[in-house]
Design goal:
The chain is an alpha/beta fold. The protein contains eleven helices and 13 strands. The chain has a single domain, classed as TIM Barrel (Alpha-Beta Barrel). It is 39% helix and 15% strand. The protein binds zinc ion. Zinc ion binds next to loops.
Length: 346
Amino acid sequence: MVCAHHHLYSSLARGMPGPEAPPLSFLGILESIWWKLDQALDLETIYWSAKLGALEALETGTTCIIDHHESPNAVEGSLSVIAEACTEVGVRVNTCYGITDRHPASNFPPKSMTEGARRGIEENRRFLSEGGKGMVGLHAAFTCSDETLAHAASLAKEFNVGIHTHVAEGKIDMAAAERLNSLSQDDWILAHGVHLENEHGLQGTIIHNPRSNMNNSAGYAKPKRFSNPVGLGTDGIGADMIDEFRLGYARLRENDVTESPQTIWEMLEINAGLFPESQQDIVTWSYPNMDPWHLAFSLGVKPRDIVVAGKEVMKDGVVMTVDVDEIRSKAAEAASKLFKKLDELS
Ligand SMILES: [Zn+2]
């Protein structure tokens, strides 16, 4: 299994102090929750967040993660910390730093490239030039100036990788298609696409994130309407791809009673193409029939044995690479440190 859009930095977010008043819009959710969380991260909390996220991916049979990272107060070195944490667990990761002009907030909406975006570009460049497996990350067009979008696209070309970005997740980003049209390429990853027109003109793979879209009241993306390939992601809510498949199917069927689980299953096949190394990994499942019609109605299917790149990383349901209890307790300590920082920020 491959998670085609993840945010490993959000693994410690569960139970975090909530906003004083419930946010009423998509931008409100971003400003009062996620853009606070990313500001509170340092390299230590990024490490434990990534390690917990990687462990939980493995525990659900996901051996490959396509990650999108942001930590504006700990940019330099952050991608290497994530890669290191995943390697220790035995999970493959493709990561990137989400370049954005939204810091400082006074610059929003952005007109020209900021120092923050420059630091993001440099972190992507540093990681890729040191041989890191990654893409060039962009937060989303609506938090970037045209100058920044153009710089990110040329960096991606320089390293022969795609851009990984959010696209039209909320109505606030509806101009994304027009602004990215002349830049996008086949190897881009376009997360969400909820508010894209059917014929939006962007090249790349659209990643459907059904649970996150429902959680943020973003709307239903109706993923079958696109001519682009469509993959499946979690947008940071774990990396349990069978669970996301099951939910994606329920949402699809709610919208069209003639639909089949095969439609969402095909998204997992698109994911595998985005992370070809996944084909070398072997997962043995607790359920004997991995047919979409079975899995859509079989809850709690788990991996039993996992081999990644020839190495046994799980045997009889036990993770062999790391001390699972230690990761959970260190992640809990890191989470309380993070929540304290969040309190100070609000
Ligand atoms: Zn996302």
